Amino acid sequence: MATGIKDKVAIIGMGCTKFGERWDAGSAELLAEAFNEALADAGIERKQIEAAWAGSCMDNVNVGNSAIPTSVALRLDGIPVSRMENMCATGTEALRGAAYAVASGAVDIALAIGVEKLKDTGYGGLPAPYKGTLNDLWLPLGSAPAGFAQLAAGYRAKHGTSKEDLKKALAHVSWKSHQNGVLSPKAHLRKAITMEQILAAPMIADPLGLFDCCGVSDGAAAAIVTTPEIARALGKKDMVTIKAIQLSISSGVESTTNQWDGSHVRNTRAAAQRAYAEAGITDPRKQISLMEVHDCFSITELVTMEDLGVSADGRAVHDILDGFYDREGNGVPCQVDGGLKCFGHPIAASGLRMAYEIYNQLQDRASERQLKNPSLGLTHNLGGVPYLGISALSILGLHH
Amino acid sequence: MTSTQTANGITGYGGYVPRLRMQRAAIAAAHSWMAPGLRGLAKGQRAFCSWDEDSVTMAVEAARDALDSRARDGIGSLVLASTRPPFSDLQGASIVAGALDLRSDIATLEVGQSQRAGVSALLAQLRASQGNTLLIASDHPSAKPASTQEVSYGAGAAAFTLGSEKVIAELIGHASQVNVFVDHFRAADSQHDYYWEERWIRDEGYAKIVPATMKAALANAKVTAPEVQHFILASSLKDTASMVAKRCGIEVTAVADSLDSTCGYAGSAHPLLMLAHTLEKAKPGEVIVLVGFGQGCDVVVLRATDAITSFKPRRGVSGAVADAQTHEAYLRMLSYDNGIDLEWGMRGEKQVKTALTEQYRSAHQLAAFTAGKCTCCGAVQFPQLAYCVNPECLAPSEKFTRTHLFDEPAQVFTYTADWLSYHPSPPLYVGFVQFDIGARLLMEVVDVGQQGLDVGTPLRMVFRVKDVDKARGYPRYFWKATPISA
Q1: Which of B366, B381, B417 sits opposite A205 (nearest CB)?
Q2: Is A214 a catalytic residue?
Q3: Which residues of B touch A214 (CB under 8 A)?
Q4: Torsional sign, CA B466, B463, B480, A253
Q5: Is the pLDDT of residue A52 over 90?
Q6: Which of A256, A350, B141, B414 is the most core-located residue (most Cβ within 10 A)?
């Protein structure tokens, strides 16, 4: 087996825009905002960047195809820049590209950046993507919430959970994120919401109500990576290194065969298994200090807790209601910055936004949100839909 | 194909009526401010097409009712009659043939432009005597809001197999007449019919033209009027059939059920829908007279044979009529028939342009809902791609055998009701359908009634319009799932 990239790549600078309804900025401005912060944080010059991976997902409300618009926006003159598009995993995918380039020795310093400008659609929610000429002829339409909501029916059927208990646990997921989001200056939504408000919200896709769905926002985030040796030479202390980045993509098993029970995300399990092996994690429930997971919908976060092996199968409802994932709980705090729920989900920026939070927490730079002595953080993205999707995991930790 | 068979009779039949029924009282109530008189007509229900049903989809469902699980490879030609085909020069009959997975070497023909389209097509095919034919009439006449037709019209389709073996009703006589009696008309580019005075239509039209043709037809068949046990005359005007029967000397008890209280008048398909309904109860030896009216008249005289007792459609017109979902929201019916331009929001602007190349390339699996069964591991998969989906197998698709999913038992595996996506009939019910034979795919679930869905709800497959490309006026078709009614 390959040795993996554990501790072969250090993050030396990160940037993240304020997420939200950024009527003031287009994609190019958002890219620059994140890039400037990352450059300043890294303490390097733009010309030291030798390669870049630029993520953007929705063609019709973004910079445009290829990596050219990003290269132009950031004036990355003459270096290789690649466009990444892997749905909601795009941000983590960009980081993977940059990290693998550094780990391979191909370049010394690389940039990963992602941007999405969703508020240029003219309506709330995501634009419906094309599915390709064949799939468009038979696959039904269906919004993102409709894709994920089906996990609820599958989960109830598998574990015999009542509609009421599941709805209560889902509400707690959103409630927790809103409590945490209050402390995040860059979050889109910074208001605590009561359980009653969540439970009484209008239905979007049964059983997901309005507060079970994350916001639609504009934003960008960026990371600059290099080798630990170069990082040290640049004077970096409390160095954050990448312990693992793994991706798993569906081959159609879940959506075409009866080998999937509808209660979990198969690809998250596969990606987690590989990421834990790469990072040397044997007991995630005990070893991971904090998590930023893809809570596009409350049901996604719930099943992800089981898919990541932090909650046992069928136990996520209880762990969630017991406060195991709350900031003040005695478990693994999840979404301490408010998650997608409060930041919103500018598709290609989200994975890097999650890494940004872990990076800051590990360096004790998360101000009001700071947890006590975290040492290992996990980010998780889920692109596409649970039954036909992309799971991306990154594990970041302090380098000793 | 050449054949020495003689097509001289009906060998099977079936029908379809949309599940959706509008309370006529709701139509009248919506218009009471300007047409209070409609209230007098507002009894019972009328069928109406869902947004994704049209003459083609109803034709497929009627044919499936007639064919049930019988072999389809003996059918040598397909004729589709309708006055509301989805296209002017793209053959709906071909789409129907594809959905039914008929042989590719059959002859197809479309008949329209006439209120008599259904009956004339049946008569022509019975006289043509050429092999086994599948004849379908399908229509959903559209009426202007607040017209009496809006209350009386319905929708439906009927299908018949014609041939010389196991004939259940044989042609024993016929007569036709032609004139330009314009009781109503619909201009080529118009959605709605324009009507002349009802009393004139009755007195100068039906009352004179039909009896004259009847006389000739009965003489041709060598039967007398009192010998007629089933008299089928479809009209959107009430009591016309009884009036004509009396004039012709036919017993009033022979007048066939007009299906008015449950279905309404299904245009050029209606006489044949009534015929399919009549055949369900006709006994050996009974004489059936079928009238087609409009710019003249066709009269078809049939006699049921002993074989009629041995034929059963899948559920028949009676079954389709009984499978009803009652609606009271009049604007729903209006919207489904493009009678009102509602604001669907920007999501409704999504482009659904069809790659006609891909549609043609994948026709073998899309049209007749054909899954591939892997002969190496047994996995049944839709869509069929280059390799078996089973990660333990991955056999190349050359190892697949083909199997239709349209009649396979299936149930809900997951589901949701999506209020966010654009859908002409919100919410969009969508979920995974698990077939008993192992296939699984994400499908739209339509005609979900009050009972809703749950994991395990039994489903059956229906042929529907998948999307409408409004920019180019192109509907594309695929299969959807619907709960099996209790």
Answers
A1: B417
A2: no
A3: none
A4: negative
A5: yes
A6: A350
Q: Residue A156: closest CA among chain B residues belongs to which residue?
A: B455
Share the mean pLDDT of chain A. Answer: 96
CB A266 within 8 A of CB A250: yes
Helix (H, G, I), strand (E, B) or coil at B398: helix
Tell me which DSSP letter residue B414 carries. S
Write down the catalytic residue from A178, A188, A264, A345.
Answer: A345
Q: Measuring CA to CA, how many Å separate A207 from each of A215, A287, B112?
A: 17, 33, 47
B163 close to B9: Cβ distance less than 8 angstroms: yes
Reduced 3-state DSSP string for chain A = CCCCCCCCCEEEEEEECCCECCCCCCHHHHHHHHHHHHHHHHCCCHHHCCEEEEECCCHHHCCCCCCHHHHHHHCCCCCCEEEECECECHHHHHHHHHHHHHHHCCCCCEEEEEEEEHHHCCCCCCCCCCCCCCHHHCCCCCCHHHHHHHHHHHHHHHHCCCHHHHHHHHHHHHHHHHHHHCCCCCCCCCCCCCHHHHHCCCEEECCEEHHHECCCCEEEEEEEEECHHHHHHCCCCCCEEEEEEEEEECCCHHHHCCCCCCCCCHHHHHHHHHHHHHHCCCCHHHHCCEEECCCCEHHHHHHHHHHCCCCCCCCHHHHHHCCCCCCCCCCCCECCCCHHHHHCCCHHHHHHHHHHHHHHHHCCCCHHHCCCCCCEEEEEEEEEECCEEEEEEEEEEECC
User: What is the average pLDDT across A9-20?
Assistant: 98
Q: Provide, as residue numbers in chain B, all residues whose Cβ is less than 8 Å from the Cβ of A207.
A: 416
Residue with tokens 């007398």: B224
CA-based nearest distance B439→chain A, Å: 6
B217 with B174: CB under 8 angstroms?
A: yes
Tokens representing residue A343 in the block:
């930041």
Inter-residue contact B184 to B83 (CB < 8 Å)? no
**Which residues of A fall within a CB distance of 8 Å from B441?**
138, 255-256
Pick from B416, B431, B476: which is nearest to A137 by CB?
Answer: B476
Alpha carbon of A154: minimum distance to chain B alpha carbons (Å): 6
pLDDT tens digits for range A151-205: 999 999 999 999 999 999 999 999 999 999 999 999 999 999 999 999 999 999 9
Predicted local confidence at residue B60, as pLDDT: 98
Closest partner CB to B419 (pick from A133, A205, A253): A205
**B414 vs A123: CB contact, 8 Å cut-off?**
no
Residue A236: Cβ within 10 Å count: 20
Chain B residues close to A257, C-beta within 8 Å:
379, 381, 389-390, 438, 440
Closest Cα of chain B to A204: distance in Å? 5
Cβ of A251 and B391 within 8 Å?
yes
To which H or E segment does residue B232 belong? strand B228-233
The helix (run of H) or strand (run of E) holding residue B14 is strand B9-16
Given a cut of 70, the residues of chain B with pLDDT beneath it are 1-7, 486
Pair type for strands A110-117 and B9-16: unpaired
Answer yes or no: do A257 and B345 touch at CB < 8 A. Answer: no
Facing residue for B421 by CB, picked from A141, A154, A251: A141
Q: What is the pLDDT of residue B439?
A: 98
Q: In which order are the strands placed within the sheet that holds B45-47? A: B45-47, B20-23, B325-327
pLDDT of residue B2: 39
Q: A276: distance to nearest CA of chain B, Å?
A: 23
Q: Residue B237: which of B277, B209, B197 has the closest Cα?
A: B197
pLDDT of residue B234: 98
A119-144 average pLDDT score: 87
The residue type at A302: L
- CB contacts < 8 A, A to B, total 140
